[in-house]
Amino acid sequence: QKEVEQNSGPLSVPEGAIASLNCTYSDRVSQSFFWYRQYSGKSPELIMSIYSNGDKEDGRFTAQLNKASQYVSLLIRDSQPSDSATYLCAVRASGTYKYIFGTGTRLKVLA
Amino acid sequence: DVKVTQSSRYLVKRTGEKVFLECVQDMDHENMFWYRQDPGLGLRLIYFSYDVKMKEKGDIPEGYSVSREKKERFSLILESASTNQTSMYLCASSPDTPYEQYFGPGTRLTVT
Q1: How far is A44 from chain B (nearest CA, A)?
Q2: Which element (helix H / strand E) includes A25?
Q3: Contact at 8 Å (CB) between A38 and A88?
């Protein structure tokens, strides 16, 4: 069974700090990786996608991918209370239409 | 902007009723998906479609069926609703490339 693992949290960080969210996956042939933000009672919203090893930056968000270690992370710089949400990691394996989601990490940014 | 819409935000149905959940996307995406989301279990794939009239079972297809007669519309059908189908139902769509998946607002279904 292909899996995506995330620490459920909550991860608490003070306002203005860097929040670091981590995700590991079991399927070595995975090619596409995604981070979603989900506010309570709402649907997931795509934040970042990453396909190659290394870092990808978009505003305050940086996604990091290490395929050798089967590890993907999301850094949120200058965290704001409005960033408080559950962050879902998703993986799409090569040659498939299916996405595997982690159960999410709950982030709390304290004002 | 990609827009995925779902027919209802909240729905209450009785056990044994036939339930239709509709999803429409306006970005000409090839692929569409139905998930359910339950606390502690995360997102679980029910069915997906990679082309008009093409469908494949996901991880939990039992008790559900789907229909995709037009590219923009993907319907989820609960043939005979049961209380264990009470859940948040999420529709998503994606192009073939890039592979980003976009979600609709969700339908919170309660079966009593």
Answers
A1: 6
A2: strand A19-25
A3: yes
The count of other CB atoms within 10 Å of the CB of residue B57 is: 13
- DSSP letter assigned to residue B14: -
Q: A43: distance to nearest CA of chain B, Å?
A: 5
**Tokens encoding A41:** 């009672």
For an interface test with B, give the residue of A4, A34, A99, A105 to mutate (most B CBs within 10 A): A99
Residues in A touching B103 (Cβ below 8 Å): 36, 43-46
Cβ B56 vs Cβ B99: under 8 Å: no
Q: Give pLDDT tens digits for A73-108.
A: 999 999 999 999 999 999 997 778 889 999 999 999
Share of chain B above pLDDT 70, in %: 99
CA angle A63, A93, B31 (to 5 degrees): 95
Residue B102 has pLDDT above 80, yes or no: yes
- For B55-92, write each residue's pLDDT tens digit: 999 999 999 999 999 999 999 999 999 999 999 999 99
